Amino acid sequence: MNKYFKIALFLLIVCSTIYAKPSDKIKFNSSEVTKLEFDFFTKIDRGQTNDIETHYDGFIIASGITDEEEFKLYKGKLNEIRNLAKTELSQYASEGAYNFGKRLLAWIYEKGILKKYFETATLFQDMIYKGEYNCLTSSILYSLLYTEFGFNVKGILTSNHAFCMVYTDRGNIDVETTVAKGFDPGTKEIRNTGSSTIITFVPKQNYNNRNEVDILTLIATLYPNSISLRKIERDLDRQIIMAKKAYYLSPDTEMYNDNLIRAFNRAALEHIRKSEYEEAYRHLEEALIFDNNNSRTKDTIIRYYNSMGLSYLGKKDFPNAIQIYKQGLKDTGNNAKVLENNLKVSYYNYIVSEYNSRRYNNAYTISEEALKLFPKDRDFIRLQTSIPK
């Protein structure tokens, strides 16, 4: 039973702990990362987060390319794009951030690097071999190339979209990277092409709830975006691993903290459903590291204790049921009505069981204990008065 008392102690420890780097909260084992990933995440943990080569590497690795030989192949393909950009665009860098930013976006499409938009084309390899892209991969590519020429850019994430914002002498300019004419997309651009007229215009309301992020946060978004593509919606352990990797790249981003807590809770609930309480406890312990006051985790802890308590009730092991429910109420701050109700049920059934077995002294002692916790409960008062002395 000692295992079940650690959550309360753990809550106290977490409150006074200060975390300085991802590895303070996240540990990978050998089954979760390849050597290539281990070396990459070690760089991040050491604070090597401003190196553009690390950013390019992250784009590839976060797309699931984690074998060293395969990585070298894709890195070579990416370097071909970088070298071509330097050869053909370096002469225009003196135009300034605004004009160069516009030119770079058009160039990416003119060279056929980005060919066809698919909402689900969220992996680096789709872009390299098929020219297929979505808002995230196109934003990452644009950010990396724009930065390589010495200009400043940020990623922008909304609830369902990603794009870029560049810093220019004309102010901060949005870049809708999913279209060739997406530079400063809040303004209309009219082009005559033979007998037709094309108007490029993206309404500003499409960019509501915007969050300015760095390149590593953009790259981190590849992990949650690719879960469905890798068909691991039901592989809860695999989802935890991906959530851990996203957190590692962007530990200060609320979304990735919350994604990780959700993943731990989903896994804990699945283990609770299977009555695998040791495994459930482990995931709850991990979730508490990231937020020891999270309402979702508190609800899961309640289900954890209630499920264990019900298993003892089902076996008519009332003493252990009582102990579990009392500990659950202690760890949840006495705010779990279901635990309180089932504690009453455990006491009631225990008293009745002892009464029916004619162990009246024990039944009376248990009723006194119950009344200390629930002094005005009529059922316990009635039971106690019926016990022979």
The top-level CATH class of the largest domain is Alpha Beta
List the domain count as a whole number: 2
Overall mean pLDDT: 88
Helix/strand-derived category reads alpha+beta
Low-confidence stretches: 5-19, 188-193
- From the N-terminal CA to the C-terminal CA, the straight-line distance is 33 Å
The gross shape turns out to be elongated
What is the alpha-carbon Rg in Å? 29 Å
CATH architecture of the largest domain, please?
Roll
Keywords: Signal, TPR repeat
Organism: Brachyspira catarrhinii
Protein name: Tetratricopeptide repeat protein
Helix-strand blueprint:
Blueprint: H1 6-15, H2 35-45, H3 52-61, H4 68-89, H5 97-110, E1 116-117, H6 124-130, E2 132-133, H7 135-148, E3 153-157, E4 162-168, E5 171-175, E6 189-193, E7 196-200, E8 211-213, H8 215-220, H9 222-225, H10 236-249, H11 254-273, H12 277-290, H13 295-314, H14 318-331, H15 337-356, H16 360-373, H17 378-386
Parallel strand pairs: 1-2
Antiparallel strand pairs: 3-4, 3-8, 4-5, 6-7
Helix pairs in contact: 2-3, 3-4, 3-7, 10-11, 11-12, 11-13, 12-13, 13-14, 13-15, 14-15, 15-16, 16-17
Signal peptide: 1-20
InterPro entries: TPR-like_helical_dom_sf, TPR_rpt
TPR repeats: 261-294
Task: Based on the model shown, name its key terms.
57% helix; two-stranded parallel ribbon; 9% strand; alpha+beta; Serine Threonine Protein Phosphatase 5, Tetratricopeptide repeat; 389 residues; C8orf32 fold
What does this structure look like?
It comes from Brachyspira catarrhinii. InterPro entries: TPR-like_helical_dom_sf, TPR_rpt. Keywords: Signal, TPR repeat. This is Tetratricopeptide repeat protein. Helix 2 packs across helix 3 and helix 3 packs antiparallel against helix 7. Strand 3 and strand 4 form a beta hairpin. The chain has 17 helices and 8 strands. The strands form 3 sheets. It has a 4-stranded antiparallel sheet. A two-stranded parallel sheet has the order 1-2. About 5% of the residues have low confidence. It folds into 2 domains: 204 residues, C8orf32 fold (Roll), CATH 3.10.620; 136 residues, Serine Threonine Protein Phosphatase 5, Tetratricopeptide repeat. With 389 residues, the protein is α+β, with helices and mostly antiparallel strands.
